[in-house]
Write a structure and sequence with these properties.
There is one protein chain. The chain has 75 residues and is mainly α. It has one domain. 64% of the residues lie in helices and 0% in strands. The protein contains four helices and no strands. Helix 1 packs across helix 2. The chain is elongated. The mean pLDDT is 92.
């Protein structure tokens, strides 16, 4: 496991993180590590937008038609 030290954190932010960690029954370190892990588990906005650019457009004239087409693709 790697270590991360955050310097210059606003005291109010530190207090709030500590309060939330206590309410969750976790150490501050464990709570913040969980936040960072959850955040990095999702693609970044830039990566997500790049993936959208690679999708093939669907030609539909209405939202209802798009829903029907999606349902038809389900097993």
């Amino acid at each position: 496991m790697a270590d991360l030290l955050i310097r210059g954190l606003d005291p109010e932010t530190h207090r709030e993180l500590k309060r939330r960690a206590e309410r969750a029954g976790q150490s501050l370190q464990g709570y913040v590590a969980g936040l960072l892990e959850a955040h990095t588990a999702r693609p970044s906005m830039a990566d997500w937008l790049a993936e959208l650019d690679e999708l093939i457009p669907v030609d539909v004239s209405s939202g209802a038609e798009a829903v029907r087409a999606a349902r038809d693709e389900l097993p």
